[in-house]
Amino acid sequence: MASDRRTLLADAALDVLADEGMRGLTHRAVDRRAAVPPGTTSAYFRTRAALLAGLVSRLVRLDQAEFRTTAEELPPLRTVEDLVDGMVALTRQRLTGEGRRRSLARHACAVESVRDKELREILVPRENAGRAAVRLFLAERGVTDVENRTHTLLTCVDGLVFDRLVNGGEVPREALEGLVTAALR
């Protein structure tokens, strides 16, 4: 089935990007990683732009599935501690194992999207269960300009994840507590 093959190739492209960076992302490298005959990737993703768009679309689908699963597993956000606990879980997820690999790929694609309108449109932050929970939490506490505060808070969390990707270690809980406190002001 073509969609299964596209998914296999997009997953292999994601792995190549995480391991070798943007320069290492070639059709041949994806063929090797996916263990498919030479030329298979270019048959499904004719150009590098098509390969990147396929990779980014897959990345967004994986992220959305992760947000749904995480939202189902976490208790409702009733206290500041609940929100911070959720952010701690998210940052750990994004910094270890498969989540780390996706984070590396996501940031490489974000930089690439500066010059590629199609990638930028695919990467636009999507509505998801996590974003909705944060927005509701802030609104229930009377925060004004909930949309901007939610965006700023989650962007800051992404920045902390990026910093830890580059410098190693975990995001300190205190940093997340500080961000939530600032968002509630």
From TrEMBL:
<dbReference type="Pfam" id="PF17940">
    <property type="entry name" value="TetR_C_31"/>
</dbReference>
<protein>
    <submittedName>
        <fullName>TetR/AcrR family transcriptional regulator</fullName>
    </submittedName>
</protein>
<keyword id="KW-0238">DNA-binding</keyword>
<dbReference type="InterPro" id="IPR009057">
    <property type="entry name" value="Homeodomain-like_sf"/>
</dbReference>
<dbReference type="Pfam" id="PF00440">
    <property type="entry name" value="TetR_N"/>
</dbReference>
<dbReference type="InterPro" id="IPR001647">
    <property type="entry name" value="HTH_TetR"/>
</dbReference>
<dbReference type="InterPro" id="IPR036271">
    <property type="entry name" value="Tet_transcr_reg_TetR-rel_C_sf"/>
</dbReference>
<feature type="domain" description="HTH tetR-type">
    <location>
        <begin position="3"/>
        <end position="63"/>
    </location>
</feature>
<dbReference type="InterPro" id="IPR041583">
    <property type="entry name" value="TetR_C_31"/>
</dbReference>
<feature type="DNA-binding region" description="H-T-H motif">
    <location>
        <begin position="26"/>
        <end position="45"/>
    </location>
</feature>
